[in-house]
């Protein structure tokens, strides 16, 4: 499963995932100072696992961009917006919606 679809879940995600990742990094730095030589097979397994996590992360990121593309108005329907264009359009759309709210 990838990213949460509503704002409550995304708020939970930011509060818990980023805080826990920071704690994990601090713990990893402490462990590295006392580590010994690691067997090549262990290193290879770790690399394979890290690659799989990265593939999963990128897949979830791409799914999130696809969902964002579906809700952001697009000028051209014949081609898919790039990630950068999607973020630009989302920003513009949010600003336009904000202006509408402020005018009311």
UniProtKB/TrEMBL annotation:
<dbReference type="GO" id="GO:0045944">
    <property type="term" value="P:positive regulation of transcription by RNA polymerase II"/>
</dbReference>
<dbReference type="InterPro" id="IPR036638">
    <property type="entry name" value="HLH_DNA-bd_sf"/>
</dbReference>
<keyword id="KW-0539">Nucleus</keyword>
<dbReference type="GO" id="GO:0046982">
    <property type="term" value="F:protein heterodimerization activity"/>
</dbReference>
<dbReference type="GO" id="GO:0000981">
    <property type="term" value="F:DNA-binding transcription factor activity, RNA polymerase II-specific"/>
</dbReference>
<dbReference type="InterPro" id="IPR011598">
    <property type="entry name" value="bHLH_dom"/>
</dbReference>
<dbReference type="Pfam" id="PF00010">
    <property type="entry name" value="HLH"/>
</dbReference>
<protein>
    <submittedName>
        <fullName>Transcription factor-like protein</fullName>
    </submittedName>
</protein>
<dbReference type="InterPro" id="IPR050359">
    <property type="entry name" value="bHLH_transcription_factors"/>
</dbReference>
<dbReference type="GO" id="GO:0016360">
    <property type="term" value="P:sensory organ precursor cell fate determination"/>
</dbReference>
<dbReference type="GO" id="GO:0070888">
    <property type="term" value="F:E-box binding"/>
</dbReference>
<keyword id="KW-0804">Transcription</keyword>
<feature type="domain" description="BHLH">
    <location>
        <begin position="45"/>
        <end position="97"/>
    </location>
</feature>
<keyword id="KW-0805">Transcription regulation</keyword>
<dbReference type="GO" id="GO:0005634">
    <property type="term" value="C:nucleus"/>
</dbReference>
<keyword id="KW-0524">Neurogenesis</keyword>
<dbReference type="GO" id="GO:0061564">
    <property type="term" value="P:axon development"/>
</dbReference>
<keyword id="KW-0221">Differentiation</keyword>
<keyword id="KW-0217">Developmental protein</keyword>
